[in-house]
Each structure stands twice: as structure tokens, then as C-alpha cells.
Amino acid sequence: MDVNATALPRPQWWRRVSIVDLYLWFFRLAVLVVVVWGTVGTLRAGQYSGEVWLDFVIFGFSQGAIYALIALGYTMVYGILRMINFAHGEIFMSGAYTGYFFADALDRAGFFDRHPIISLLIVLCISMGVSTGIALLLERIAYRPLRRAPRLVPLISAIGASFFLQYTFRGLYGSGFRAYPEAEILKGEWIIAGAGILRTQAVVIVASILLMLALYMFVMRTKTGTAMRAVSEDLEVAALMGINVDRIIVITFAIGAAAAGAAGILYAVVFKQVHFFMGFIPGLKAFTAAVLGGIGNIPGAMVGGMFLGIFESVGPILFLDGLGIVAPYQLKDVIAFTMLVMVLIFRPSGILGERLAQKKA
Amino acid sequence: MKRIQIPIALAVVLLLAVSPYFVPAAPAATMGPVTDSLGVVKINRGQPIQIAYWLVVAGPDASLGIDSRRGIELAIEDKKTVAGFRVRLIGEDSGCNAEGGVTAATKLAANRALVAAIGSSCSSEAVPGAPILWKAGVVTVSPSNTAPRLTAANRGKDYDGYMRTAHNDLVQGRVAAEFARRSLKVSRAATVHDGSPYAEGLAGAFADNFKKLGGTVTSTEAIAPTDTDMRPVLTKIAAGRPELIYYPIFIAAGGFITRQAKEVAGLSGVKLMSADGTFSPDFRKASGDSVVGVYNTSPDLSPQAMGGGYPTFLNKHKKKYGENPISAFHPHAYDAAMILFRAIERVGKKDSAGNLYIGRKALRDALFATRNYRGLTGTINCNQFGDCADPKIAVYQHVTADPAKWNAGVDPKKIYP
User: Fold this and answer.
1) How far apart (Å, rounded) are the C-alpha atoms in residues A232 and A354?
2) CB B311 within 8 A of CB B324
3) Is 60 exceeded by the pLDDT of residue B235?
4) Is B231–A59 a contact, with Cβ atoms under 8 angstroms apart?
5) In this predicted complex, what is the ipTM?
6) In the CATH hierarchy, which fold is given to the domain comprising A49-360?
7) Who is most buried in A4, A35, A323, B184, counting CB within 10 A?
8) Among B193, B235, B262, B278, which would you mutate to test the A interface (most chain A Cβ atoms within 10 Å of its Cβ)?
């Protein structure tokens, strides 16, 4: 029964358009014009050869792979608890920072140079373990008591936890940065199909893809994964079906944190510097990536991470250089976030769309 | 009830935003034997004279501020008493960014017993921070700000209380360009700055002088100080085929560029040169093995360039702190403290009870009138805009990558002039 059947006839389209719609259209057009003009300008100037563009794309992939791994944690927790875990960036940092001490010890014992692969695996396991431990503590202390609270309360708790972790690490280990030891085997580059790719970046991309595949298989094929998807669709009904919701939530946090811990070590392998504040910006960018790909959606987080990495790497030089802007890389964050806004304007649910039950959206 | 909440919230936000500028202003006052248009500080007999530092003593650039603070501490030890009073050093960390500078300056400006300040470390802190201090009548002498705009002729009355014993970057840019053109004989260079007043000023000075000497600047790039992935910027620079990259930035970003420049195709033979912001063993920690062969422009710390007391200072430093100085501005901080103490002795007046009174404007005028003072860094002559330094810039080159082997002049080795 349609109560609107006897309502007024639909007004003409020009009366339905509001000033907000006009502004949005104008914004979309303006950004598109800037992007196209800039791209045409850069390509016509032809200053950069094909290899250089390939280099940019590879840099983007490797950075994006790290964002994608961290974004997985954000997106899974949001899917289940409808809450943004702002402390996830610090979980990433804690794994990397703790792994540093073991890497340094192994390096000073000479073990790091003799058996680099085993050392890296050891450090990776430690990092993932520490990240998981801290995430589980967070879940128990900061989030579980607030499960029935209004939505903003766990958010504030998450922000508080984020500050707490940052300054705990600062208090424990000081405010300076620590330099990761370098593995000889990872210096230099490999030549694949005529293009040079840095060994560290190749390792990062391959490792991230393997981890993401493993996670995807876990969520799609195993019983626990199915239970996770059920809880994310409807928590109360899943509980009625006999799923232990608390256990599933703990597992979700653990998996997200393990991915973040792995991302921490990969980040340390590429950038070789850890610092108590290093989780803030990658955490923010990964959250952006998760939203970009569709929050709550695991392949979306992966796609969003890759896209964000490529926007940051290729964007300034593709769009801004053609417009004649000096020093375009200073504006790379502007480009990344503008692209996010553009995607959300055109497609508010993100690239792959939100996979949430309607009433929870 | 709800309607009034929005204006109240707006009002609170606005008040918080403008609060740093509402520091207690310094009204004219007469205390004891001293009358001063900006107020008088009274130090009771037996109390110490309070001097504050606002330097970067935490974070990735901590070596810069800690080095300067050690210079001040050694000056206090050497001087023992000023006008018969002990000196007490308090201080704030200023974080090497504008927000840190504002916070540190606001906290210090609220301290009515503060006589003067020494700082800041980074020019980005001084640009908003020095006016806040001067509004409260606190004069500040910087040991390591080098941005040209802080002592430019058009700097404005807000900076009347600001002066520095560090060199002006117009000099450093010139020396860097001369070294690049005449000694290294490069004709194409690229610059990278990080948006801070110091880096932009120095990169600009280098580019201007380089072009004047006949070179070409292939690109002027910029990054954010918190950036970690420099490879896209370096790839863009590589497309212009420069022979030298000059990156006068700070330690964290400088470390990333040094490491990643070796990994970018097209930059394999390019020489790398940084400036005094990265002149520290922490830069070696950040860059790893790729720091070998990197050049640094920095104040000349060799015995011929420095004043007579420098070797004694180095011995005292080694004995007290157990290591060589970790940055380049310790002698400038020492000199800043010394000229401050001399100015206090000149303008401070005692009453019959033995209390000391210092007029703020008189202190400022006495500091700016410092002429022909023989300090550790050479002869200090302050001009009306606050440039006091006797600038001598040298170029160093890193011999090894070991932070423990840091010894300015030997490793990194001084190679020019």
C-alpha cells in the first residue's frame, strides 16, 4: 500500500534540484577539468619516459600494499562492530617498534646477515604477535565494556587508546627514531621484463598479496570466516544462531592486528626508520583507503589501498605538473584526499560498495 | 536552550584560537632604581636569575637542541655568577615546528620572573614564537635560527626582541653554490626543501647564487617534513638529469632522501649535499650506509675559524658529556648566553638591600648594542636587525657511516674552504 499514491504529483526536475546538488555538480566538474587539463599537459610535454611512469606505478603499488594491509584491520572491525578503531595505526606502530629490538639484537649477533630470510621471518612473527596481543588487550579493556553504548563513545575511547599507546611507547623508548638494520640480500634491484624493481618493494608487494589472499580465503572458505561474515551482517541474529559473538570479535581484532603487524615490518623493511609517532599518518591514510574502497568490505580495503597508493605516487606528477605547479609533491596529500572526496561524491558507498545490512548503514 | 549553545561554542573556540596572542603584555613600570617602558624584573637577593631555553630537545631533531642546550650549560658553568647572582636555566621543548614554537613561547611568556630566553632551534618555531615572547617583553637570542626573513629589514616591530648569533642563510647559500660550481664543477643542480622557512630560504639562496655563477637549476622540489616515501620526488628530479641535489632539510626527511636516492634509477652518479640541519650523528643513523660521501654545509668549526677559547670548550664538553658535540651550534649557544650575561651585568641595578632589577627594554637595547665581543664563534657585532654572527661556513664530507665515530672536522671531514 503506497501512501504516497494520493500525494502531490512529482515537481519538475528544476524544482527538485537544491543548491547542494548544484554545488556538488560544480565541484565534480571543477576537479574533472583540473585533472584532465593537468594530465593532458603532462602527457603532451612528454618529459617522462615510459620507464619513469612504470617506476611511479610500482612505487604506488608498494606503498598501497602497506596501506591495504592496515586498511584490512579498519574495515573488518567496522564490519563487525560498526566502529572505527582509531588505535589501529598504533597497533601497526607497536608491532614495528617491538620488532626493531629483536632485529637489532639479531643484527648485533651477526645472525641477521648470515640468515636474513629466517631473521626477517622471526621478526615478522614477533611483530604480528605483539600487535595481536595489544589489539586483544585493547578490545578487552577499551571496547568490550562499551559494546552497548551509543556509537560515539567507543570512538572517543579509541582515540584515547591511540594517544595512550603513542605516549606509552614514547615514554618507554624515547622520542627519537630507531634505524632498522639492513639486510644485504634486500639491497639493489631485480630486473623483471626489462624493468627494474627494487628488491624491498618486490618483497613488500608479494608478501602483501600473499597475506591478503590468505585472509580472503580464511574469511570466505572457513567456518570461522563464515561466522565473521554472519556477525558482520547481523550481530543479534548471529548470536541467536549459536555463534559465540565475543569469540568472533576477538578473532576479528586478532586477524586485523596481525595484518597490521605484518605491514609494520614491511614498512620498516622499506623505510628503515621506526618512531613512536609513525603510526599516525599511515593509520589515517589506511582509514581513507578503507573508506575509498567501501568500508566493511574486505576486497574493498585492498582495492582502496592500492588506489590510494597510486594516487599519491602518480597523482602529483600526472595532474599538477601539467598545470605548471612547482614542487607538486608537497601537495600529494591534497591530491590523495581530493580523490577520496571525488570518489565519494560520485559513489558514496566507496569503490566496491558497502556490504552492510541496510538497517545498520 | 539549544540555540544559545552554538554561539557559546563558537565564542569558546574563537577565544581558544586567539589566546596565544593575549599573553600578559609588558606595561611600563618602575621598580626600585629602574624605570623601564616594557617592565622590570626583580630578582631578590639570594634567588637565581632565570633564563629559559626553547629548543628542540625531543624527537628526531633532538640532537640540534640538546647540543645548543649543552653550550648554554657550559656557559653558565664558566660564568658562575652574573652580577653576583646565580643563573638558573629552565626550558621548553619546541619541536622544530610552528605549533611547538607557539606552545613553548606562550608557556615562557607567562612566566613573569623570566629575564630572557635563548632559542629557538628551528626557524619555523621562531617565526610565530618570537613575537609572542616579545609581547611579554622577553628578549630572545637564537643560537641556530638561520632563515633570512627573521633578521630582514622588513621584519616588522614584532621581532624587535629577537636576535641571533647564528649565521644568516644568505651566506650559507652562497658558500654552497660557490662550492658546487667551483670545487665540484657541477653545472646542473636540483633543490629539495620541506616548506619550512629555513629550508625554503636556504634552498632559494643556493638557487639564486648557483644561477648567478652560471649554473642551471633543473628543478625546485618540496616535500613535507613527515613524508617517508621520497622515491616519486626523486624520480621526478632524475628526469631533469641533475649532477647535484641540495636538500637543506632536517634529519628525518634528510635520512629518507639519502637512503632512497641510491635506489632511484637515474640518480646513481648524482652528488648529494645537505646543510646544517642534518649536521649530526643522528643523520648517519637515519641514512645508514648511504651517507658515505654526502656533503654538508655547516658552520666552520675548525680551530682556524673559531675563536681562541674553542679547544678548551671542547675539552670541557667531552669531560662533562662524554662525547664530541652532536651538532654545529653549541658555540653559538655559548656565545648567546655570554652576551646575554654581559648585557644583564651592564643594565642590572641593585638596590640597597641587594636585590637586582633589570629593565626589559634596557636589556634589549644593551644586547643589540653588543659590538666587538670576542666569542667562541669569532667577533660578535650585532646590527639593528639582530644579525650578530661572524659567519664562516665550511663544507664537510662524511667519511664513514658510523654515528659513534662522529668528530666534526675529521669525520665528517672538512673539505672547503
Assistant:
1) 12
2) no
3) yes
4) yes
5) 0.83
6) ABC transporter involved in vitamin B12 uptake, BtuC (1.10.3470)
7) A35
8) B235
